[in-house]
């Protein structure tokens, strides 16, 4: 893109009519929508992407992590407000980000900066059922699918070749599904659809989610 045009486009607010990016429809092998999947769009090698570093928050409330799934760009921070009266002990053994924080009731864990791309599974040492997933990605272009399996990834002023990836913590494959996509520049969203085989609903004898990452 000519520099002058790029400079002009940066003057247009993200909410203006110049919506570009991809809309993703995610369904399982039977065609049912997949909710809470992470979809993200990576540039082809050698192509720079902006660093937006939007921070995120994973709260603890009612002995749950909220939300269950979080996606952030590599280098971003997540804070962990504790809204419960009980204490939690948040930890992760995942190679992408190991940490361990004992907390007292009402206290909040230090924010963590996630420096490596990958999957980080969070647990609580006191409440075994608490689990949350952080997908750390090398791009600012990402979204989560809704109840209809749809996600819209806004890519302001983008256009060109990209790789769209989709990941869910219950997917059968160990690596994200991916498709090469030519994203249209200007006022257009490029539709992408994925079929992703999923594991059967949880069984009591299922291996712990912590063993996968
Ligand atoms: Cu806990």
Summary, kept brief:
This protein has one helix at residues 3-10; strands spanning 20-27, 38-43, 56-57, 59-61, 64-66, 69-73, 77-80, 89-92, 99-102, 109-113, 118-124, 131-137, 142-144, 150-154, 160-167, 177-183, 188-195. With 213 residues, it is mostly beta strands. The chain binds copper (II) ion.
Ligand names: copper (II) ion
Order of helices and strands: HEEEEEEEEEEEEEEEEE
Largest sheet: 5 strands, mixed
Q: Kindly identify the CATH topology of the largest domain.
A: Immunoglobulin-like
Strand order of the largest sheet: 6-12-11-8-9
Topology, number of strands: 17
Mean pLDDT score = 87
Q: Please estimate the helix content.
A: under 10%
Low-confidence runs of at least 5 consecutive residues: 12-16
User: What Rg is obtained from the alpha carbons, in whole angstroms?
Assistant: 18 Å
Gross morphology: globular
Gap between N and C termini, in Å? 39 Å
Give the helix tally.
1
Strand percentage, roughly?
Answer: 35-45%
The level 1 CATH classification of the largest domain is: Mainly Beta
CATH superfamily placement of the largest domain: Carboxypeptidase-like, regulatory domain
Please state the structural category.
mainly beta
Describe this structure in words.
Mean pLDDT is 87; it is low at 12-16. This protein folds into 2 domains: 17-49 and 143-195, Immunoglobulin-like (Sandwich); 56-137, Sandwich (Immunoglobulin-like), CATH 2.60.40.420. With 213 residues, the protein is mainly beta. The chain has a 5-stranded mixed β-sheet, with no helix packed on it. 4% of the residues lie in helices and 42% in strands.
